[in-house]
TrEMBL record:
PANTHER family given in the database record: CYTOPLASMIC PROTEIN, CYTOPLASMIC PROTEIN-RELATED
Name the UniProt record assigns to this protein: DUF488 domain-containing protein
Recorded superkingdom: Bacteria
Lineage: Bacteria, Bacillati, Actinomycetota, Actinomycetes, Micrococcales
Pfam families: DUF488-N3i
Organism for this UniProt entry: Kocuria gwangalliensis
Length: 122
């Protein structure tokens, strides 16, 4: 299984990034495809539009946001959790990329924690 980390998509790529996977629903404004250097974009792994808009990157709502988002991941309505796991089985390292300015309160933080809690080997 892959070693996982998260970082902002606007940061420069690094050889240690491994597979670069964008986990936001929307393409990051002003970021070129060359700079992003993505291997995969799992936009349906992002929180639903309703949850994303409700959260609005408000740190005071983060705990409730994380709880609701984890429930969405548990349901895996899009099948992208399973697809991500398939990708991660074939790489040594992967970086989950996000665009939020807040490095502590965002969907990638929740997704990384969820993967570590629910899947072995991450």
């Amino acid at each position: 299984m892959a070693q996982l980390q998260i970082k902002r998509v606007r940061e420069d790529r690094d050889p240690d990034d491994g597979a670069r996977i964008l986990v936001d629903k929307l393409w990051p404004r002003g970021v070129s495809k060359d700079h992003a250097a993505l291997n995969h974009w799992f936009k349906n792994l992002a929180p639903t539009d309703g949850l994303r808009k409700w959260f609005g990157h408000d740190p005071q709502k983060f705990e409730e946001f994380a709880s609701r988002y984890r429930k969405e991941l548990d349901q895996d309505a899009s099948g992208e959790v399973a697809e991500l796991e398939h990708v991660l089985r074939d790489v040594d390292a992967a970086t989950l990329l996000y665009d939020a300015k807040d490095v502590e309160h965002n969907n990638a933080v929740v997704l990384l924690g969820w993967l570590r809690d629910h899947r072995s080997g991450f």
